[in-house]
């Protein structure tokens, strides 16, 4: 039995269409269709019921799903058991966020390359909302983000927390002062993307104080927000690892604001599938990298 055909069967079943499975497996839709046809011919039965816009498992296909997943898990375990990490060849799709890129992602990649030098990493940087959606739809192998992602079939690994800090250009004259959050009501605020967890928390803090929020500018590029803060466009709320170098250079000042802004909770998220051993191993490395980085706590 061809394991590639079995893998294709599993992904078609999970995603509900040949097209989606083809995208996930980096294959053509015709190739996926041919693999399923060959597997069905070998088994002497139909594994799927064809419908407009997709497919669903037949009665036989439903019975075959668990053994197929176990077969893939056994195959992956076999490869890991008999081969050294240096010879583990695969490409893993990883989604992450700006905060992690500027904190410990380089540390994570260095550790992965040390242990699995033949492993390819396909990186995608976006918001936590977008990355969470991608991993929920099984379009990513591993997500490193503000979590958890509460979706069926996903495993969340705690990566600790990341502190945030208020910063502003020295021209604002806010450094070295004890400030209240309401003292920022007359300044433009630069921060995380709209409807993100930090954005919602910030609005809630103003609401709890009974203060009208200032004008808030959002972006999924925290690098852009930091650049604007440095140029005196507004006061910024950003992850500590991002702002530390700018503070050291004296181009922005860290502000003392009450109440304190909650630390961001970070998670590694991957599909809790039987054969998903590599993302599971990488999540352990991600935790090591996160906890070894300044500004991160368990």
TrEMBL record:
InterPro entries: LysR_HTH_N (IPR000847), LysR_subst-bd (IPR005119), WH-like_DNA-bd_sf (IPR036388), WH_DNA-bd_sf (IPR036390). Residues 1-58 form the HTH lysR-type domain. GO terms for molecular function: DNA-binding transcription factor activity; transcription cis-regulatory region binding. CDD domains: PBP2_LTTR_substrate. Keywords: DNA-binding, Transcription, Transcription regulation. Belongs to the LysR transcriptional regulatory family. This is LysR family transcriptional regulator.
């Amino acid at each position: 039995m061809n394991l590639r055909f079995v893998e294709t069967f599993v992904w078609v079943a999970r995603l509900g269409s040949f097209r989606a499975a083809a995208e996930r497996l980096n294959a053509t839709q015709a190739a996926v269709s041919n693999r399923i046809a060959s597997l069905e011919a070998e088994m002497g039965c139909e594994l799927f019921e064809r419908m407009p816009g997709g497919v669903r498992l037949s009665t036989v296909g439903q019975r075959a799903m668990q053994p197929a997943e176990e077969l893939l898990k056994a195959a992956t375990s076999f490869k890991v058991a008999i081969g050294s990490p240096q010879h583990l060849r695969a490409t893993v799709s990883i989604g992450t966020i700006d905060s992690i890129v500027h904190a410990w992602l380089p540390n994570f990649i260095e550790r992965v390359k040390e242990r699995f030098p033949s492993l390819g990493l396909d990186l995608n940087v976006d918001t936590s909302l977008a990355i969470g959606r991608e991993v929920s739809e099984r379009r990513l192998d591993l997500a490193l983000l503000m979590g958890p992602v509460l979706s069926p079939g996903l495993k969340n690994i705690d990566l600790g927390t990341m502190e945030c800090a208020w910063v502003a250009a020295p021209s604002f004259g806010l450094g070295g002062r004890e400030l209240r959050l309401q003292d920022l009501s007359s300044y433009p605020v630069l921060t995380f993307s709209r409807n993100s967890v930090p954005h919602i928390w910030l609005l809630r803090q103003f609401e709890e104080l009974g203060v009208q929020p200032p004008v808030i500018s959002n972006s999924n590029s925290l690098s852009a927000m930091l650049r604007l803060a440095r140029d005196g466009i507004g006061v910024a709320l950003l992850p500590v690892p991002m702002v530390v170098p700018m503070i050291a250079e004296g181009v922005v000042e860290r502000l003392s604001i009450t109440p304190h802004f909650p630390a961001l909770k970070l998670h590694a998220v991957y599909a809790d599938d039987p054969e998903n051993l590599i993302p599971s191993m990488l999540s352990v490395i991600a935790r090591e990298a996160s906890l070894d980085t300044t500004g991160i706590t368990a």
